[in-house]
């Protein structure tokens, strides 16, 4: 598939079919992440592949928050009525938990800023696009309880969580979220040639 086609085809999925992702497809996704660029090729990303029921129930636990209508309005799948909460797990059969090892990152010599979050984000992006190219749906998750995740997943102290990717086949009745994801700003609002327009300065 042409890259532009994949970019446009990839749309957030928040409702997954109860069908496992084939091991070869998981490997392909991980392999795409493996070939991502990272600062000084340090490869500080650490990916935890969660597909066992007990691992997924941990995700469910650290993605649970007090009821907030705002999120239910955005994605009704997160409405966890039974417990009076919202839950951002969405029933995905596969969760890629993306972190980086603080001790393995390049640090900017002047600012001391670590490249870990950028590296891990690039890796996650490659994996997300590979998943789209082989017919899988994904959603990028930033909204989770980091402290609880570290504890439940027993992450090493030096691992910094960045995001999760939920991966799976879209549910038959899944429809892309048009109010959140359907619109893209015109290039003229986000890209500028050679100089910042005066009105923005
Ligand atoms: C950095 C980042 C964080 C996100 N966090 C969440 C999240 O915590 N929960 C969620 O349901 N969607 C999350 N999303 C998905 C976005 O809402 C979605 O990508 C956006 O609305 C555009 O829609 P599209 O992916 O269908 O094009 C996140 C996306 C990005 C890039």
Report on this model:
It is a single chain. It is built from eight helices and seven strands. It has 201 residues and is α+β, with helices and mostly antiparallel strands. It has one domain (3-174): 3-Layer(aba) Sandwich (NADH Oxidase), CATH 3.40.109. The strands form two sheets. It has a four-stranded antiparallel β-sheet with strand order 1-5-7-6, sandwiched between helices. A hairpin with a 4-residue loop joins strand 3 (79-80) and strand 4 (85-87). The chain is globular and about 50 Å long. The relative contact order is 0.22. The model has no long low-confidence stretch (mean pLDDT 95). It binds flavin mononucleotide (FMN). Flavin mononucleotide (FMN) is lined by residues 11-12, 14, 75, 88, 139-143, 176-177, 180-181.
List the topology elements:
Layout: H1 3-9, H2 23-34, E1 45-50, H3 53-62, E2 64-66, H4 69-74, E3 79-80, E4 85-87, E5 94-101, H5 116-133, E6 137-141, H6 146-152, E7 159-168, H7 178-181, H8 187-190
Helix pairs in contact: 2-5, 3-6
The protein binds flavin mononucleotide.
Quick description:
The protein is of the alpha+beta class. Helix content is 34%, strand content 18%.
List SSEs in N-to-C order: HHEHEHEEEHEHEHH
Give the termini distance in whole angstroms: 40 Å
Would you tell me which CATH topology applies?
NADH Oxidase
| Helicity, as a percent range | 25-40%
The number of helical elements comes to 8
């Amino acid at each position: 598939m042409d890259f532009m086609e994949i970019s446009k085809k990839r749309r957030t999925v928040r409702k997954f079919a109860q069908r496992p992702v084939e091991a070869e497809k998981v490997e392909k996704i991980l392999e795409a992440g493996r070939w991502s660029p990272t600062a000084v090729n340090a490869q500080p990303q650490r990916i935890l592949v969660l597909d066992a029921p007990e691992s997924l129930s941990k995700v469910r636990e650290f993605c649970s928050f007090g009821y907030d209508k705002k999120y239910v309005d955005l994605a009704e799948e997160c409405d966890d009525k039974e417990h009076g909460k919202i839950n951002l797990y969405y029933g995905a059969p596969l969760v890629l938990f993306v972190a980086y090892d603080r001790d393995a990152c390049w640090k900017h010599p002047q600012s001391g800023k670590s490249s870990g979050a950028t590296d891990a984000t690039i890796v996650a992006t490659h994996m997300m696009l590979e998943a789209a190219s082989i017919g899988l749906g994904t959603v990028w998750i930033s909204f989770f309880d980091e402290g609880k995740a570290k504890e439940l997943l027993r992450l090493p102290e030096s691992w910094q969580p960045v995001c999760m990717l939920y991966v799976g086949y879209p549910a038959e009745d899944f429809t892309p979220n048009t109010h959140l994801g359907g619109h893209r700003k015109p290039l003229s609002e986000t890209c500028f040639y050679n100089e910042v327009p005066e009105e923005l300065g």
